[in-house]
Specification:
The structure holds two protein chains of two kinds. Chain A is an alpha+beta fold. Helix content of chain A is about 30%, strand content about 25%. The longest helix of chain A is centred in the first third of the chain and has 28 residues. Chain B folds into two domains: about 80 residues, Beta-grasp domain (Ubiquitin-like (UB roll)), CATH 3.10.20; about 70 residues, [2Fe-2S]-binding domain (DNA polymerase, domain 1, Orthogonal Bundle). Chain B is globular and about 45 Å long. Classes of the chains: A alpha+beta, B alpha+beta.
Chain lengths: ~700, ~150
């Protein structure tokens, strides 16, 4: 999704009077868009950093902020190369733009690893131009100057200019073709834990989320959707809803019935008062059991091969082990329900949205309104959680229709009940595993993934000819263990339940199967599960690195009390490696208490260590929720759960001790938001086995599975 | 429509709204105090926690008719300059992630410290367990409360 730059970025300078130095990097394809008349050539585009005459520096964040503190880490990268004084730096959030910033899509744990070099170059370019401007003023060679803490110094004389003093002169200079990047040993900001630039606003109520946007003459709307997936409106009577004090109107839109009112409470009550007769459609006969039966049946049939090594048939080993692992649908459950503000005007549209995909919203609105993308302004607010849910533009489509019809700015609010019922759920899955050993050595590994396909549901035509959805076997087909004979295949089992990218995507299910089953093979081989993994990972140094670090810090192998156990798991995803050791206590009535998680991550070079630590802590809690609770079930073609009483999240009193250890590395940066999640569930279930000798092969862990 | 009087963060507001409108929506939609968040509408998540006459309550479950004339403190009223010990501690521990639930977390913690200036982990867990955080900031929230308690001593 993110545009990778294959050749050197080139630089544009703006020198509008009084604007100071504004520079940015133009993407190579920008010129083609200009030539084709798709975007306008101006001085303003492609701006990453602006140095103002008052000596402040604004750095653009073109990725969405949903708790990963990307609005701090990305500016750190620019400021590092720029040699800015961190106290000068302000961050500004980029509006959606088709090409100015490359992809603004925020997902796949990709913000830092995909922007790192580009942003370093942006900072280095500005630094070199400021140095040149100073050298010109002093009439000396730039080699006699250096940048430090927001100033350009003439080394021998001790003279200096602030960046602000040089901004105007620098803006008139040509940009260097190939700015020199700092050697990592000279990094001052990168590698340091910096306080979040957004932290102060997040503790006093001033942080502005989508839900907090208020514009003049705004009306409010909610949308009542058919609870059954694939259902439609048969008929509806708006009279009762319209009688609710504050309700202005109620009318049909594509996805249901919109209620428009003067405040949120009016439209919530209006939604409750609405009489709708639904045509529930064919999926109304489906429930979770039927979905599972269908998946079992299809799973026993034909599969598409994703990986085949050695000889996976005619195996004559002395120990054959088979197991089935199962994972349910689950929910993103961002604390801020879906919402946005949309104002459709005569020839333009302005949108405020907590979104991970500003550009998708821009194109969605342009297409729906029949306008040019240039007419669509998308302001990106802070996101009250994302986790993949806000990669969809469904909620914006609601508001577009209502604003178009009412000709007013509209704030759309999904109630928590709407949000729970209409997610794009983490796909449910079945994993059929088979392994065999000869003389205690693993000789064969077979893993069949049976699951709905996110891509297959979005674009079924692409998969008609039996094409493999590679995403669905992510984390399964790249099994790291050195086993000579490996078969990984996939069976697509789509239903009407919408599925989507949930934190770590298919890695969450596939790692649970892999790391649970490798533990079973270790048991069959009569070996320690940590040592057994190490022996099979000799050619995977980064897997070994995190495994050893986590095991060592957890005190792997130490004696624990009765009904207590330690489990281990390791997984690579999103360019990073993570390992975890879980310690659990299994109570009398089959309640699992997770006492401690010791984790290690190797995500290459780290920009903001405390940010990585926080993301690991977050992934662990998110992973624990889906290990211990948080199941979505289907009845009559609709979601059974409706709010936090029946879709439960981990709470503070269930929070284990968590330690995060970061592997020191000079490798290119990897992801941080997702890689911590996949090892959580198998580390916990392996710990349960260590505690009471019971294998857990389905999530979430239920008391009846422990007896 | 009935008339109500609310004293929010020391400021008096008179307004006409329907009697059953929850305080949450009165504050957010009518008076512009958007620091108090909507998360569930049923008192299940704690995102809308604020203080009513000094007690932590759920604004989403409190009809305005029942709080006419009351003294209300929202997150905006804790301090305007982040000088409250809890705000300072929250910043020092880098507690927030997305931040959406944090107003509610802080307001629950403030009420806890008012009645128990030196809580242990168990006290904190039992006071805070009804405040949900999907980003998983619990460990840092707990540390921040300990830090604030120490600072207050």
């Amino acid at each position: 999704m993110i545009q990778q730059l294959s050749r050197r970025d080139f630089i544009k300078i703006s020198s509008t009077a009084g604007a100071g130095l504004i520079m940015g990097i133009t993407l190579p394809y920008k010129e083609r868009l200009v030539a084709a008349g798709i975007v306008e050539q101006t001085f303003e585009p492609n701006v990453w950093v602006s140095i103002h005459l008052d000596n402040t520096i604004t750095i653009m964040a073109a990725k969405s902020e949903m708790g990963q503190d990307i609005r701090t880490s990305l500016p750190m990268i620019v400021a590092e190369e720029l040699e800015a004084d961190w106290s000068q730096v302000k961050v500004a959030q980029a509006d959606a733009h088709p090409d100015k910033y490359g992809s603004q899509g925020t997902g796949g744990s990709g913000s830092i690893r995909r922007s790192f070099t580009r942003l370093r170059k942006a900072g280095a370019t500005a630094r070199e131009m400021l140095i040149q401007a100073a050298a010109n003023k002093w009439d000396i060679s730039p080699t006699e100057c250096r940048a430090e803490k927001g100033k350009i110094l003439h080394v021998s004389s001790g003279r200096s200019f602030t960046f602000g003093e040089l901004a105007e002169a620098a803006s008139k200079l040509p940009a260097p073709d190939d700015p020199q990047l700092k050697p990592p040993k000279d990094f001052k900001l990168i590698g340091r834990s910096m306080s979040g630039l957004d932290t102060p606003s997040r503790v006093n109520g001033t942080a502005q989320f989508g839900m907090d946007v208020q514009v003049p003459n705004m009306v409010y709307t909610t949308v009542l959707r058919c609870p059954t997936f694939g259902g439609k409106i048969k008929s509806f009577n708006p009279q009762k809803a319209k009688k609710v004090n504050g309700v202005i109107d109620a009318f049909e839109i594509d996805e249901g019935v919109a209620i428009v009112g003067k405040n949120t409470w009016a439209v919530i009550k209006g939604q409750q008062a609405l009489d709708v007769d639904w045509d529930h459609g064919g999926f109304a006969n489906w429930d979770s059991k039927q979905i599972k039966d269908m998946m079992e049946k299809k799973g026993a049939g034909k599969a598409i091969v994703a990986r085949e090594d050695g000889n996976v048939f005619n195996v004559k080993d002395d120990q054959i082990i088979k197991a089935q692992y199962e994972v349910p649908f689950t929910h993103h459950a961002t604390m801020e329900p879906m919402n946005c503000v949309v104002h459709v005007k005569r020839n333009a549209c302005e949108i405020w949205a907590p979104t991970q995909v500003p550009q998708r919203i821009q194109t969605t609105a342009a297409k729906y309104l029949g306008m040019d993308v240039k007419a669509i302004t998308v302001h990106v607010t802070l996101l009250g959680g994302g986790f993949g849910r806000r990669l969809w533009a469904d909620f914006v489509t609601d508001a577009l229709q209502v604003s178009k019809k009412t000709k007013k700015p509209v704030k759309l609010v999904w109630t928590r009940e709407d949000d729970i019922a209409h997610d794009f759920f983490r796909p449910t899955s079945i994993h059929k595993l088979q392994g065999s050993l000869s003389k205690k050595t693993v000789n064969l590994w077979k893993h069949r993934v049976v699951a709905p396909s996110i891509s297959g549901q979005m674009t079924p035509e692409r998969f008609k000819n039996g094409r493999l959805d590679r995403s669905a076997v992510n984390g399964a087909s790249n099994l790291p263990y050195a086993i000579p004979n490996v078969l990984v295949d996939y069976v697509m089992t789509n239903t009407k339940v919408p599925v989507g990218w949930w934190r770590s995507v298919y890695n969450s299910q596939n790692a649970f199967a892999n790391e649970g089953f490798i533990d079973e093979l270790a048991e069959a081989a009569g070996k320690d599960s940590f040592q057994f993994r190490l022996d099979l990972l000799k050619d995977s140094p980064r897997h070994m690195g995190v495994l050893k670090l986590a095991a060592e810090r957890a005190g792997w192998g130490k004696k624990l009390g009765k009904n207590k156990g330690m489990g281990i798991a390791v997984h690579e995803s999103f360019g990073s490696w993570a390992a975890m050791v879980a310690e659990v206590t299994v109570g009398e009535k089959g309640a699992v208490k997770v006492d401690k998680i010791t984790s290690a991550i190797d995500c290459g070079l780290v920009v903001n260590p405390d940010g990585v630590k926080a993301q690991m802590e977050s992934a662990i809690v998110y992973g624990l929720t889906s290990t211990l609770k948080g199941e979505i079930t289907i009845e009559k073609g609709a979601v059974v759960q409706s709010n936090f009483h029946d879709f439960e999240l981990l709470r503070m009193d269930e929070m284990p001790k968590v330690n995060v250890h970061i592997v020191k590395s000079a490798e290119p940066p990897g992801g941080a938001g997702e890689p911590g999640l996949p090892p959580v569930a198998p580390a916990v279930t392996n710990a349960v086995f260590a505690a009471i000798g019971k294998r857990i092969r389905r999530l979430p862990i239920k008391p009846e599975d422990l007896i | 429509m009935p008339k109500f009087t609310l004293h929010v963060n020391g400021k008096t507001h008179r307004l006409n709204v329907v009697a059953d409108m929850p305080l949450l929506w009165v504050l957010r939609d009518e008076l512009g105090y958007t620091g108090t968040k909507y998360g569930c509408g049923r008192g299940l998540c704690g995102a809308c926690t604020l203080h009513l006459d000094g007690e932590a309550i759920r604004a989403c479950m409190t009809a305005v008719v029942n709080v006419d004339g009351a003294e209300i403190t929202t997150i905006e009223g804790l301090s305007t300059d982040n000088s409250h010990p809890l705000q300072k501690a929250w910043i020092a521990e880098e507690a927030p992630q997305c931040g959406y639930c944090q107003s509610g977390q802080i307001m629950t913690a403030a009420a806890l410290l008012d009645r128990n200036p030196n809580p242990d982990d168990k006290d904190i867990d039992s006071a805070m367990k009804m405040n949900l955080c999907r980003c998983g900031t619990y460990d840092r929230v707990r540390k921040a409360i300990h830090r604030a308690a120490k600072d207050k001593e």
